[in-house]
Fold these 2 entries.
Entry 1:
Amino acid sequence: MTLDETQNGRRDSLVRATAADGLIRCMSAVTTNTVAEAARRHGTTGTVTAALGRTLTGALLLGAGQKEFDRLTVQVECDGPVGGITAETNSHGRVRGYVREPHADAPLNAQGKFDVSAVVGGGMLYVTYESGFDIGLYREPYRGAVPIVSGEIGEDFAYYLAKSEQIPSAVMLGVLVRARESGETFVEAAGGLMIQVMPGADEKVVAAIEFTVSRTPHTTALIREGARPLDLLRTALGEVPFEVLEEREVGFNCTCSYERAASLVSSIDGAELESMLKEDKGASLTCHFCNETYRIDEPSLAAMVEKSRNGLG
Ligand code: ZN
């Protein structure tokens, strides 16, 4: 099977399942296209693609395990060359994200792989759940924070779940980035798996899962061979029966628009708007999350200045 048949023609998706009478939550996802889109938009190096892709995938999996939230933000505030990673997801499988330094890089590690922990370094991992927007009732966000323990991202998500949410978990996040002869890199496979153990789960089942998980090949090796999220779960859970609750499409998707950019520009102070009109003959605004640039042309900006003069801005 070629790569085109296994991935490019198929949309990314995520499966949510339970085992052990609902006391074990299992989430798995194939995110090859999502990560490729993030890499394309931000022009990231191979190492940063792997770091950002793991964070995006981890955010999607973490979000799938939660019932109620409108927005989940994962922030890696780190002192390594990448400078920081942000991923944001909603409860419908949309995810977007960016890094502070897309061109950061590090030498390959001892295994000849992209060295994610070297570009991340040390720092903190923050997870914020916000809810209530859609019913006009903004609740106090829940925010958890843990120090970065590995910088490989997957282990950091597991540490966060154990320490901050008191949920022992197995987390596997993978992004397989390959280099073409030209030196240009591309995402061949990406995805992950998250298994969360709730209090009271059958110890024998937990031990059985720990055993199969420890022997599971890299998620990206399976995805490269055509595995879908359900196949990843079957491999990780072995003989343990599980019930699929939901399968949903996931993808890189930003909420920005020209209208939002224009509304933001129009809220700028009148004097500053006038100088932008005079000096730049317009304004441009780039979305951090997706790197899309919106250009407010001269006539549109002139109309904003006019409105602001009349006290309507
Ligand atoms: Zn955007």
Entry 2:
Amino acid sequence: MIKMNTKNIYVTKPSLASLEEFMPYLTEIWQSGVITNGGPMHQELEDKLCTYLGVKHISLFCNGTIALVTALQALRITGEVITTPYSFVATAHSLLWNGIKPIFVDINPDTLNIDSNKIEAAITPQTTAILGVHCYGNPCELKNIQEIADIYNLKVIYDAAHAFNVRQNGESILNYGDLSVLSFHATKVFNTFEGGAIICPDKKTKQRIDHLKNFGFVNETTVVAPGINGKMSEINSAFGLLQLTKIDLLIQRRKEIDLIYRSLLSNIAGLKLINYSSKITPNYSYFPVLIGCEFSKSRDELYEYLKKFHIFTRRYFYPLISEFPMYKGFSSSSPSNLPNSTDASLKILCLPIYPELSNDDVLFICNKIKEH
Ligand code: T4K
């Protein structure tokens, strides 16, 4: 028997571990007196994340957005950058903050990632890079994108905010492209309250990124670039170290929830699930469903209906980035250029998924979806 739900179920909830477990980390910080500027916990987290993620170099940041802005600076990207309108607005904002013009290219309706077959037609003499997003942690078409970039001499940056530890054929997808950017925001699979990181393949680029996130300082008296303050503090790093001891269990629990949803929500008319290729080891960061016209309710009716039962889903990503006022005027923002993105943004609903969500809660959510 399914109980009536009286508590709020949000789309996500940060995994906090226990305060008792966090206290020793805090004590260490208080005793050392080093609370930021590349302290010991920051260094330890960079080292441990490199090992865990299977990447060469990582530079921690105060959040994913500043990491994106800095990644573009690190590679000296200018002019036009090809990207997706189907993402969190920070993806395109990072371009505008660098004075770069976003050129929106439509998505593949099955993966909801930028359609690599449509990239070439959007390249102009001003194009300098491709900024892909591994939406919901589902990898972009990595090989195709790199092939296009090689032909046209473009840089590739991946907004991997959703893709913590996602693997393809066992290898981290964070090793693809010139740089990948992670978010460790409270709503993410791995969180440091606020935080982010840039993954880079070589030491020289890591050094430039480290300078850029510290105002451009290379030593006490030398500033080599107009850098920003993008550093992660010791408290955030400490929380990351604690989270890392639990991350496999947290992802395993997400997997269990994903499986329950899939078993209960497959074969419902008008409700489409996003499937991963068998090559992918996902991180189960989101559980997106697309509500089509054969479903008994519209997407927005279902969204409102679930709210009545304290189930707060999210329409990630509606509206499209290209529909916000600062992007609307670009010719690539025209809905006729973005039919699949427009369609997905009108159908998408992200269901609650987080480790503390109980099986009963998942059953309750599925029952409410299936009603009518
Ligand atoms: N690129 C992509 C593709 C991204 O998705 C994001 C961020 C970025 C770049 C930028 O990375 P950061 O600069 O953020 O590191 C959220 C997050 O703020 C944002 O990080 C995330 N993507 C985006 C997809 O979602 P909101 O406005 O939907 O979050 P909010 O506050 O409504 O939280 C959602 C639910 O989570 C709440 O209803 C309750 C729960 N929650 C949230 C917070 C913050 C908690 O239980 N506790 C909390 O502390 O944007």
